[in-house]
């Protein structure tokens, strides 16, 4: 019952998922990535490309080039704002973010959010665009309940044992909105500070589930099942503009 709520396309991901299909949302920030992901999705019905202009790339993004892929995608993202991991202009980030929020709401498409360092600002903006949101790998101890109050899905990233904020998300997200994610095998390596082998990828998902289960007094299998079923519901159900 493995699932991964958020990865980025890589040669490893393409090879692994082709051999071991599972529900996965693949984030695509360029037309080239989107083309590869949609080609893979034709063979893997539970692979869901999400397309959006990432805050790291707003200074090189081409809206017109990306728009056909936004139209084709069932999920928009990851999109958001970031004042920690990038130096792109925050005004330009906000402009692209709001444009995509408005687009996703008008098209009834759920959204994957990137919130690093801009958690409060993003919360204020999504309140203006009611929709179905997945806050990916949230790693901030404040505002968790505020995002949950808007009905957001929250994914537990690598790893609750390494980050108290991730542990808080793992403990407090309701069963029906809990997801797990790796953000890709490279992110697992970054989080642990260790090199990772292909077999470490499913082990990482299982470890996230196991650590989450310990925080919720349940079993690893229960968390894996919840995350699997919730991801399919998020990916396959069109967002609504009213709650």
Question: Can you walk me through this structure?
Answer:
With 243 residues, this protein is of the alpha/beta class. It is built from ten helices and eight strands. It has helices spanning 11-19, 31-41, 63-72, 90-107, 119-126, 144-149, 164-172, 185-192, 200-216, 220-236; strands spanning 4-8, 24-28, 47-51, 75-80, 111-114, 133-135, 153-156, 178-180. An eight-stranded parallel beta sheet has the order 1-2-3-4-5-6-7-8. It starts with a strand and ends in a 7-residue tail after the last helix. The relative contact order is 0.15. Residues 239-243 have low confidence and may be disordered.
Distance between the termini: 30 Å
Biggest sheet, strands in spatial order? Answer: 1-2-3-4-5-6-7-8
The computed structural class is: alpha/beta
Residue ranges: pLDDT <50 for 5 or more in a row? 239-243
